[in-house]
Amino acid sequence: MAQRLNVLVCSGASCLSSGSIEIKKKMLEEIKKAGLEDEIRIIETGCMGPCELGPVILVYPDEILYKKVKKKDVEEIVENHFLKGRPVERLLYKSPETEKLIKKHEEIDYFKKQKKIVLRNCGMIDPESLEEYVALDGYEALGKALTEMSRDEVLKEIETSGLRGRGGAGFPTHLKWKFTKDAEGDQKFVVCNADEGDPGAFMDRSVVEGDPHTVLEGMAIAGYVVGASKGYIYVRAEYPLAIERLRKAIKDAKEYGFLGENIFDSGFDFDLEVRIGAGAFVCGEETALIHSIEGKRGTPRPRPPYPSISGLWEKPTNLNNVETYANVRHIILKGGDWFASIGTESSKGTKVFALSGDIQNTGLAEVPMGTTINELIYDIGGGAPEGKEIKAVQLGGPSGGCITKEYFDTPIDYESLTELGAMMGSGGVIAMSQDTCMVNTAKFFLDFNTFESCGKCTPCRVGLKQMYKMLDKITKGEGEKGDIDKLVELGESIKKTALCGLGQTAPNPVLSTIKYFRNEYRQHIENKKCSAMVCTDLLTYTIDPDKCKACTLCAQNCPVDCIDGERGVVHEIREDECIKCGNCYDVCPFDAVIKTTGELE
Amino acid sequence: MSEKIKLKIDGYEVEVEKGATILEAAKKAGVNIPTLCYHEDLDPSAACGICVVEFENKGGYQRSCCTPAEEGMEVITNSKTLRKRRKMIVELTLSNHHVDCPSCAADGKCELQELANHFGVETEAMPSVLEDKEKDKSSVAIERDPEKCILCGRCVEVCENIQTVNAIEITDRGFEANIDTPFGYGIGESPCINCGQCIVYCPTGALKEVDHLEKVWDAILDENKHVVVQEAPAIRATLGEEFGMEIGNVTVGKMYAALKRIGFDAIFDTNFSADLTIMEEGTEVVGRIKEGKDLPVITSCSPGWIKFMEEYYPELAKNVSTAKSPQQMMGVLTKTYYAEKEGLDPKDIVSVSIMPCTAKKFEAQRPEMSDSGYQDVDYVLTTREFVRMIKEARLDFKNLEPQEPYHALADYTGAATIFGATGGVMEAAIRSAYYLLTDEDMDSLDVTPVRGMEGVKEAELEIAGSKLKVAVAHGLGNARKILDKVKKQLEENGESEYAFVEIMACPGGCVGGGGQPYHSSIAMRARRGEGLYKEDSELPERASHHNQAILNLYEDFLGEPGSEKAHHLLHTNYFKRSVLTGKSIAKATGAHEKHLEKAAE
């Protein structure tokens, strides 16, 4: 029976953590109280994307989006909207420019410029319902492939589509499939890399949590092409919901005959299993991931042989990323030509990005390849919060690099980003404003890479440590002339001699910030100055005697008692004892505490 | 015929077999590309990155140790940038290495030292990032200094894949990555079997034996102590190479001379007790073959193998010969027979052995190895320690005039000297077993099928009309192949196809022991073995039962082989040990015990 209203409650990670489950519970109660159980259906969905607005609720068929819903708002929504048909205006989205209320969610800027292929179902269906997935053409592509197409025809379609690996490197998907298909082996495997680990990236997680069947279907089609009867999905243990939903999806798909033996009576068998990783970042590297599934220590090995030839248990193995598999069914259903019509010459289709940092609309956005960075961070991301200006974005997470605003009109595709010293990576976009110290940012990413290095190869294990120590020195005001050149030299050497992708890209955040923000490095080294006021060791706190009202508040809040003065006596900070915690600056009611950086001339 | 390919190394054309690495191809072209983690006997781990090369016709770097050479490749092994990269790797490695070359056990043998020297790298080119790490002194045989470890992974490779002991593994990640035993209990409480192959393959001095040298010097220089020494068969074939002579040169007279000059009071020879072992073990083999009981008999002279058996194959303990190893037979005779003969109080005798083996240090300290009423062997020196001793004594080894040992406990036959090479014990035993079963010597004493470096060797012999199948394995990974087969046959049929099995823990046998010089490659081991076979062929007596000194010993002291006295002094029991800690948890066999009980009745 069709319901009058479908209420979609976003249960993506961000909305979940801001209380969407409680809201859902409350809504069920209120609906029951109002006697609307038969008319209104509540559906817990995967991530809808606009995390900044969360918890988000979308009401169909009205297409009304409620933002920042609180538990206490639920009664009002049920009463006014569900019962009386009057949407609760104060919870609707307002255009930041025109202040106009926008009721229909598709009219919101954040959604307008997006093109959803991979995320089509995310936030629209109950990810735990196979029926809902099937209702939206789910498993039709698998059926088509198995019953109407030969393995070569499917491969041809993927080739025509121009799909490239979404894990970061952008290797043509059809070639990987072809290599595995052509490799000799009594048993072949299909593996999905869902070991997303970049700080600030949650694309794969959202797809798996929001639409798990789409990944399963893509893998089954890949299995058919390469001749694999078994597949593994490697997910990090930190994604418990993803694991749960994948397991349920596999179980349901088997029950319905979409996985298992003799699928669609085609004679094709395909079974899937979830393997949980312990969260080492390096296990996202394909050979390390394979080792981890095999139960070995997750360290990379030299290639060749590539996994397509000798992968899991030394059998030919096709390994793709979540997002790559999620594209497959759409290509099969709508055709490779359709897919190839989206995007740029070299990069086809769409890419999902996770927007975070100094940006108004943090969240998940899927855009056609070729969209400019400007469009992504301003039109969709809404630009920097008030009073700030975006000076650069970090693309590709800890393996990527930054791109400065002069290049924001660059269309996003694999080649142009690499040319700029960044990379597509898995799709993390971190916006940085004038309040971001680029040296400190580089240090943050390098710290991550140093910690997450597997420790196998010397350039990565010791080289990154050396680079980190130099950056640490610089941010502490102990940098010396020549350090920048040393960093570049070391970074270039590590890139050339590290064993795997992690080490070969780990110096990127440092090298690209030096490339575009050399001046910030120089200021840190030569003037002991951090203009973003981030590197605490380079800050100096003083008290303006003219403004100080000798209230003692700062002295009371100083954890190390380094402020002299008493009531009536102007205060003074003993600089050599100051630990630069900033408490005095924060508590002074008269703005008498002055924060400065750089050596006084 | 395997396929050949042609490529250019620095412009020189070279032809190699398909599948050869660039490193191997370069070697053929006369260039030894620098390596650090690579060792010709082991699978490349590709950790260090120092062997990177460039290409004339394409960009990028590849590790030459693990990259297959390809037709038409144009490899560059030296360039301005390669020099820079390689130097950087050496600098990085040194920055995380405890540089104390003058007092390091590997000084002069250290591959890192050599590279630093060749590349003209200054020790402190990069600031040290080395953290304090505690030495692992938990083992009686092997000591590990993590501050010198460069994480090349060779020790793990040899422990895990060649020896299949799995006592050590790389743990933690990134800069914290280190090599450790299960649960960090330390080598002494791990499954380590003390074979010392990790030491031999260590490129630096991170691994070494537990040093007994100081104590031996103290004893020698103590007038109240009577210090005797025995030297294992393999020692004589190794010493020469450490003093500028050809590998495999047998230097027995010079060895005795050096010992005398150093100040030992009496010089015995483990070769004598090797002949004695054959008399005891041979008698046991013949007896068990006649009875058809507990076959196959498995040799017991390799203490690494014995501990391995006690951990991983305790169910086969009843098959292992109860005869003690030659070292322990000599030890017990020293403090009984020799003491009596020379009118010495055994408590004043210090019994020293010089062994190619680190496991002998463990064996000497086993509580049951004190049938003389004292610890039978007090100190065990490895070949490396003995070389240091000769160097400290400032002896001109190469030009020493040969000297004579204490003949009653030193004379030996060719059968004893080949104990040092894989298959040697088997061959020696066959020579005497044949005699014991037929009362005549074999037409030819050479049993060539059991010689050579093949991992598992088999031979079928016809003795007194019956066929006997024997097997020889060296290296414990190879041993597992035979042992698993034997175990399966015993379980399924109650009997095995083999009558006699020789197992040596170390690849190549004792010439490749863990107490031998650093970097003893398989090729070097083979040459040492050849030296021993050459000595065998030149000796006047080549079968243990023809050793007059042995016959005298039985007549004067022991009675006959397998006598009660012989059993009491020259045989032993085995234990079941924990595979986690290597500690004994139960007695696994009572064969020797039962024999004694029976004898007592």
Automatic annotation (TrEMBL), chain A:
GO MF annotation: an example: FMN binding
Signal peptide annotation: none
Listed PROSITE patterns: 4FE4S_FER_1, 4FE4S_FER_2, COMPLEX1_51K_2, PROKAR_LIPOPROTEIN
SUPFAM superfamilies named among the record's database cross-references: 4Fe-4S ferredoxins, Nqo1 FMN-binding domain-like, Nqo1 middle domain-like, Nqo1C-terminal domain-like, Thioredoxin-like
InterPro entries per record: 4Fe4S_Fe-S-bd (IPR017896), 4Fe4S_Fe_S_CS (IPR017900), NADH-UbQ_OxRdtase_51kDa_CS (IPR001949), Nuo51_FMN-bd (IPR011538), Nuo51_FMN-bd_sf (IPR037225), Nuop51_4Fe4S-bd (IPR019575), Nuop51_4Fe4S-bd_sf (IPR037207), Thioredoxin-like_sf (IPR036249)
Keyword Plastid included in the entry's annotation: no
Domain 4Fe-4S ferredoxin-type: 539-568, 569-598
Domain of life (superkingdom): Bacteria
Keyword field: 4Fe-4S, Iron, Iron-sulfur, Metal-binding
Entry's family note: Belongs to the complex I 51 kDa subunit family.
PANTHER family: NADH-QUINONE OXIDOREDUCTASE SUBUNIT F
Protein name, as recorded: NADH-quinone oxidoreductase subunit NuoF
Organism annotation: Candidatus Mcinerneyibacterium aminivorans
Automatic annotation (TrEMBL), chain B:
2Fe-2S ferredoxin-type domain residues: 3-81
This protein's GO CC annotations: membrane
Cofactor needs: [2Fe-2S] cluster; [4Fe-4S] cluster
UniProt KW keywords: 2Fe-2S, 4Fe-4S, Iron, Iron-sulfur, Membrane, Metal-binding, NAD, Repeat, Translocase
Tree of life domain: Bacteria
4Fe-4S His(Cys)3-ligated-type domain mapped to chain residues: 81-120
Domain 4Fe-4S ferredoxin-type: 140-173, 183-212
Subcellular location: Membrane
Molecular function per GO: 2 iron, 2 sulfur cluster binding; 4 iron, 4 sulfur cluster binding; ferredoxin hydrogenase activity; iron ion binding
Matches recorded under InterPro entries: 2Fe-2S_ferredoxin-like_sf, 2Fe-2S_ferredoxin-type, 4Fe4S_Fe-S-bd, 4Fe4S_Fe_S_CS, Cytosolic_Fe-S_CAF, Fe_hydrogenase, Fe_hydrogenase_lsu_C, Fe_hydrogenase_ssu
Main subcellular location: membrane
Annotated family: Belongs to the complex I 75 kDa subunit family.
The protein, known as: 2Fe-2S iron-sulfur cluster binding domain-containing protein
Species, as recorded: Candidatus Mcinerneyibacterium aminivorans
Taxonomic classification: Bacteria, Candidatus Macinerneyibacteriota, Candidatus Mcinerneyibacteria, Candidatus Mcinerneyibacteriales, Candidatus Mcinerneyibacteriaceae
